[in-house]
Amino acid sequence: MKAFVMDLSICNGCYCCQIACKDEHCANDWTPYAKPQPDYGQFWLKIKETVRGTVPKVKVSYIPTLCSHCDDAKCMTVCKPNAIYRREDGMVVIDPAKCTGCKLCPDACPSESIYFNEGLNIAQKCTGCAHLLDDGWDVPRCVDACPTEALRFGEESELKELIAKAEPANSGCGAGRLFYLNLPKKFVAGTIYDPVEKEVVIGATCTLKDKNGESHAVETDNFGDFWFNGLPDGHEYSLSIQKGKTAKTIQEISTADDVNLGDIAMRLT
Amino acid sequence: MVQLGNRMRLGPIPNSSRAKDVTNGPKNYIKRRRALIETKGDKTVLRSLSLGGLYGGTAQGMVDVKDGKILRVRPMRFDWKYDRSEVRTWKMEKNGKTLEPRWKSLIGPFSLGYKKRVYSPNRIKYPLIRVDWDPNGERNPQNRGKSKFRRASWDEVTTIIASEIRRIHAQYGVNAILQQGEGHGESKVINTPHGQPGLLLKAMGGFTQQIRNPDSWEGWYWGSKHVWGQGIQGMMFPAGNTVKDCTDHSDMMLFWSCDPETTPWGFTGQFPSRLSFWWKEIGMKQIYICPEVNYGAAVHADKWIPILPNTDAALQLAIAYIWIKEGSYKKDYVATHVVGFDKFSDYVLGKDDGVAKTPEWAAKKCGVPEWTIKAFAREFARKTTSIAHYFGGGMIRGPYSSEPARLECCLLGMQGLGGPGVHQLQITYFGMPRMEGLRSTMFWNPKLSERLAIPIASTIYGWQKSMLSKLQVTTHLKTDEPLEFYGTGAIEAPVSDQFVRYQFPLPEEEQGARIRMIWSDTPCRTTCWNHGHEAQEAYGSAQLETIVIQHPWFENECMLADIVLPANTFMEVDDMLTNIRQSGMLADVMIADKAIEPVGESMSDFEIVVEVAKKLGDGLVEKVTGGFTTETIRKNIFDSMELESLISWEKFREKGYYLYGVAKDWESDPPGFRKFFEDPEKFPLPTPSGKLEFYSEALAKAFPNDLERPPIPKWVESGITHVDERLGGERAKTYSLLLQSNHPRWRTHAQADDITWTREAPTCKVVGEDGYAYEPVWLHPSEAAKRGIVNGEVVKVYNEKGIVLCGAYVTERMRPNVAYVDHGARVDPIILGKVDRGGAINLISPIGSTSKNCLGMASSGYLCEVAKVTPEEWDQWKRENPAAFEREYDKGAGLRFDAWVVKDGGAK
Fold first, then answer.
1. Helical (H) or strand (E) element with A186
2. Which residues, listed in sequence order, are joined to residue B208 by a DSSP beta bridge?
3. Coil vs helix vs strand at B114
């Protein structure tokens, strides 16, 4: 069975995967696998882009999202004419010939991966480029187009090591064929400076603690910056900063969002 | 597997998962039991999908064709016809990590989506003549940009053009015809999209050449050349082998107004992205200095320093101040490699003007906190540092950009430029490993036939007697006085050209003439270049009797033409590409066979000129074609590249492409300015003194009263050319934001604005409530809130030059005090010369050049304001300009060709 593994730490947000999918499936008829998707408006693969933090501590995360080709797909369960089938390689395909246009599957899919084509009166979604795989291509178009190899596709057995360290996509149907490495977590960052000397404070020890004993410590770098990366969502922390005899504490830092504490003034004594 | 921090990294790709191209038959074909349909198409052809024009770019691709239609566009598999063992490739290693070429090209998204450009609803399908333009009667120039077009036959238009050329030559002289034949475009050699009319006009005795200013390189061209010599358009050159040297020795890379995730897409592809990720793996720090979190900063920056547009000179001077005060620069190097340091130092310390260029002084100018400036200066001195650009972005395309460009040379000079890890990088565009046997079809290859060299010459050289910079055409049309200028601005002009006085028109005795006819293949002046609104109005001048434009798409100035001719794309002609621009990982020469038949009645730019030549007789067809056929000219290219020593012509024809191997000894190529670094007396720079000139004697002598480009580089607050373009001045009370404009993310300049699928990216277009896809303007949430603007709202970006409508993209990626709009969106006038809906921001950019004696353009770092559009304004525009709101509009691709053509073609 095939699987997609996506390493988000090397996704550069180029949208080539999203575009390559369009290039393959707009105005190209791959009956019996798939009929053309409309010129615009469907996103069998869609980049979810998130801007995190505030000036000047800002990052952008990109997550290519697509159908997980779920092992226990809700779309297959609700499909009245049994038009949705799973192949040997694990790809789940909506048969355009059997689909009667009842529109139940787009609503049933918890990850919104199914689109309805009003013009053709059929539901449509990612086929894993099954038409290509059967004709000797090794990977779907999205994977082929990825310049950094953030997108990978292959036999589960060969990708075993990566899958073991990855998180399955949150499809809403349980297990599937899509896995993510390095899903973005939250950060807390800032800069320490001395407001009288007008200098950054280098080598200050910054300790981020929550109520339950979770603790992280970093030192400010040569820009006076500190970054706590990879923090869990929605935790509450306090930050203690210490340089020599000077100390400062900031309370109630919540990682509901990424946090930029800004330029923090600390007059060194 | 390698653990890096708290991230996991992928290991090498297992062989059977490695994507293989299987479309060329048995060799790589993996038989499946269940192949239900054939997917490969009828044929596969090769292309360079780069849009830099000229002879090729890399960004190589493969195009599958079925039933005469493009089936798909995909990355090129370099091992399609070659065994990997046949080609020696390069490898770089550091800290246990390896970087080597992939066997697949890394093309960008608008390359992948290029099918939509070829089949765009904006393609010009047949020749057009403006309905109220009659060469034998009334020409109605005042209606340009307002009246529509009727369909005409090729016979009719070529007859008219031939007749007009004859008439104008007889009445005014050959120099009354201006060829706008330069710029970026699709990569083709035989049918290169620009400059073909020059072949004909040259054979007829000459023409006025529109000089293409090096718009991506302005500050380097007009500034840096005076510090370190000619360079390549002013950027550091020689620049060989700098990527490896930085890999080996640089601790820190400053991406200063550089976006390696964006600008390379149109020229070579995404290799710089791979390189940036790899540099992070090996521990190189990457600092981004730019007003916005550009697309490179978004994923690579270890630190973002948000600087106000066009204030880099202040930051640079403050860095120099810290270094001088703290003695943290390479004093020995400066003593032996630099002239004029003392004068420069005096200025920095405030000894001559009483203003010390301290971090405190600079912070107020550039918006970077004083403590960050100090920390940055020290880190720059402490760590072996290089500076990366991909051209130069907003930093060198604003008012007075010669100064920050020169200051960069000075900062690098103060840290031992040319030493290990200390370079200016035109990142991967130069500096990649040298390829074996690679000759050049770059402009200076003397072996190229005239047939190929002349069209390109118009982009590169000032080669006609009568010359006028692109930036001056508007002024010429608006004034009777001859224009006087220093330096043509031609891309390959030597530094000395900047001291030569030119005039336009030439004196009468030198056959000077005012412009009466424009023949253009580059209709993007109003969106790619500055003062677009004034240019639109100038085109309505009665002095211009005839405007002919040839182009594949009905874009931008096409609406201002009298005759429009349909050119075709690189998918529709046979050609050959020399993909030798670096950063493609592998260089090649490829045969590019036609993919599809021409759309509509289109012809290639070259074929169009031949059609006109046919009407003129006089043996001009022979002069234009040079007697070449496609096949013989392919052989000419092959010969001029000296490929015979590497592969036979027959073998090359059979394979369809030649892949260069890397030179065996590339690693020992001296990197960048290494020779000058090691022995400045034996290997002087091409400057008058042979050294880095922090003080330019030549500038002091030639322009003693020039306060805008003085003998030493300075902070120029204001001057006669740009009187008031800074925050804190008078105008800033009305126009309170600085406009930042970059090389666009989703286009290459004006190209590819109509690709349906890129337009669906959130930073490409913002769809308004009216269903129109607007060009985004980035605003910080605080600036939006001040103006009552919400994300997604249609707003006006404006100054005295007019209004450009945009869609608000409210984001923390933008620092306060700035509005950012990429240049190059297609013009869509509501009121010509005043109000634009298409988002072509250059319509409101200044007409003043870089500075008085620097004939470059300033298209970033000027004042504007952004505000909500009131319902009353909308109503008034709709009431008074109904035609603008009735134009056919394609929901996927935007503007449509037929919006400008009278119904049913309007045949005469």
1. strand A186-194
2. B178, B466
3. coil
